[in-house]
Amino acid sequence: MAYNAKDEEKGVNLDRSTSPQFEPAPGVKESWQRRFIDSFKRDPNAAVTKPTHTTTSGGFDHAAAAERTANSGLAKKLKSRHMQMIAIGGSIGTGLFVTSGAALSSGGPASLIIAFGIIGILMFCTVQALGELAVQFPVAGSFSAYSTRFLDPAWGFAMGWNYAIQWLVVLPLEIVAASITLQYWPGAQDTNAAAWVTIFLVVIVIINFFGVRGYGEAEFVFAIIKVTAVIGFILLGIVLDCGGGPRGGYIGGRYWYPNNVEPDYQGYREGQPPGSIASGAFHHGFKGLCGVFVTAAFSFAGTELVGLAAAEADNPRKSLPTAIKQVFWRILLFYMVSLTLVSVLVPYGDSRLLGDSSSDAKASPFVIAINNAGISGLPSVMNCVILVAVLSVGNSSIYGSSRTLAALAEQNQAPKFLAYIDRKGRPLFAIIVASVLGLLCYVVGGGQAKASTALNWLYSLSGLSSIFTWGSICLAHIRYRAAWKKQGHTLDEIAFKSQVGVIGSWVGFILNCLVLIAQFWTAVWPVGYVEMSSSEIAESFFLAYLAAPVVLLFYIPYKIYFKTPFMKTSDMDLDTGRRILDPSALAEADRVEKAQMPRWKRIYKIFC
After folding, report:
1. Residue 42 — φ and ψ, nearest 5°?
2. What is the DSSP track for 80-110?
3. Would you give the DSSP letter of residue 568?
4. Fewer CB atoms near the end CB (10 Å): N or C, the chain?
5. Residues 273, 369: contact at Cβ < 8 Å?
6. Radius of gyration of the chain from its Cα atoms, rounded to whole angstroms
7. According to DSSP H, which parts of 546-577 are helical?
8. What is this structure's pTM?
């Protein structure tokens, strides 16, 4: 194969000498049935890397693990537009649209904004660190592979399984949420919920069997719908708050003041006396604020998927920096602005915010705000958007879990069959495993009570696990930069540098630790614990903090058995999987390209 600078820039592995080429016979056109069947066979072009050295009993082969994740055989078909939409709106789901209502109810509007703001800062620092690592090393498994390479293989093992389990349980959680969302319409209430979850599960699985291109196109469409809806709600919310709705009346910030809900507010239940709906800036004080963190973390979960998708981007050096920069606008616009408007339109004492479960779309503060305004038809439109959002997150869950499981298998940290990559670049068996676990969505057949209990435990597994993932990304970036300097490299050799640098990674890591501490405090001593029994406190603790013992359960036995070392900066592998082979030449090409841009575009590229 001839050398091509474009291939080098895109990160194409030019060495195919050890891989057989799969080519149909010249002049022979196979039937679509044969092509379809053959697409599920193992890709003969996928690199099957042999261990580069033999380890002693109980050891871990670092070099072989790095080689396998760098040459996984995944299809590189995600375009820049896919990456941008995955970054902007890829995982906006029930966390923002629905469970933010429960967070508003438990902590009050000020707690909602402060907690989401802190998690937003944490998330921005984390994604910047992830962007730098993913542009340099667009390898399979992304952040779990970075933990293995730059921190400790045992911690990488724990983080990989933590992330895989997070998305494996989110799939049934989001499918059930979609079926509950449909209950908003009276006609759907008479249909067995199991029928709806079957339809949603089949649709999501089919999308993922179309490969990474199918996932990318679906997320592109889903994200456009969600982004349009959020921008529309922001514009509507401003009008409603200023008194421009059908029912009129200036609202302003009245619900941020104590006991300031008007007598004709739409949220009063039948027989409820006027003035009995509570309002104010905080609810349950500092503990109420700390309790909102896990909801905020669940809402932001999935933002890091753009780093995982880097291994399947056709040109990560070009598409990833743009996608990473746009995360800032996602945090500011879609979370902070929209939730600020929600906080001034709905008081925290509105009983509708509690709903029947954490996935009840009728409890969405977005829907409640529109209902209060008396705009007919629009609540149904918003519920359609919520339905699209939960399907989008369900789609992302199969993608995230299957790629992580395949990367773990490549590193011999999961059953080897999960590393099977077919001729379309799909981790076939990993997708099947993730899809089969989606059958947990049939808990809806056991009735509302059993379904709610099961959903709460699934939510407890996924809610806090993101904090461990994000903290590991920040720490891996800190250690990577230390190794980069130790081994004689300069920052000029890094194609995309985190805009907040190592200081930002320290800020992100410390904030992750503080959130874990705050959540532990509220888990051990929850609001109203004095009136709770010991069994209720224990149940409350594990519902809030279940992810922590799960992580330790994976980390400690692996650490003891394999005796894995904490990685020294001098021993870290900074070469395997690096796709930027000539950074100085590429940097010069970027400089020339920017010089030819008009001024407005150069300014735009700084922020987007």
Report:
1. -60, 140
2. HHHHHHHHHHTT-SHHHHTHHHHHHHHHHHH
3. P
4. N
5. no
6. 25
7. 547-562
8. 0.87
How far apart are alpha carbons 473 and 143 in whole angstroms? 6
Q: How far apart are CA 8 and CA 10, in angstroms?
A: 5
* Alpha carbons 175 and 199: distance in angstroms, whole number: 9
* Cα 150 to Cα 358: distance, rounded to the nearest angstrom: 37
- Residue 424 has which token pair? 């379309």
* Residues forming beta bridges with residue 421, ordered by sequence position: 427
Helix residue ranges, H only, 411-464? 428-437, 448-463
- Burial tier of 427 (Cβ tally within 10 Å: 0-12, 13-18, 19+): buried
Q: How many residues does the chain have?
A: 608
Give the max Cα distance, the chain: 82
**187 pLDDT higher than 60:** yes
Q: In angstroms, how far is CA 27 from the centroid of its own chain?
A: 45
Using CA atoms, how far apart are residues 5 and 356, in angstroms rounded to an integer? 57
509 backbone dihedrals φ, ψ, rounded to 5°: -65, -45
Cα(457)–Cα(447) distance, integer angstroms: 16
> Could you tell me if 349 and 261 are in contact, meaning their C-beta atoms sit under 8 angstroms apart?
yes
pLDDT in tens, 504-545: 999 999 999 999 999 899 888 888 888 888 888 888 888 888
Half-sphere exposure (CA, 13 Å, Cβ side) for 383?
22
Residue type, 485: K
Give the pLDDT band (50/70/90) at residue 587: low
Phi, psi dihedrals of residue 552, rounded to the nearest 5°: -65, -35
How far apart CA 26 and CA 43 sit, in angstroms, is 20
Q: Would you list the DSSP string of 37-59?
A: HHTTSB-TTS--PPPSSPPPTT-
Which range of 16-20, 186-190, 291-295, 497-501 scores highest in mean pLDDT? It is 497-501
Residue 162: φ, ψ to 5°: -60, -45
Give the count of alpha carbons within 13 A of 406, CB side only: 31
User: What are the tens digits of pLDDT across the range 440-485?
Assistant: 888 776 666 777 777 777 777 777 889 999 999 999 999 999 999 9
Structure tokens at 131: 């962007």
Q: Which helix (H) or strand (E) holds 325?
A: helix 316-329
3-state secondary structure of 61: coil
Q: Collapsing DSSP states into helix, strand and coil, what is residue 313?
A: strand
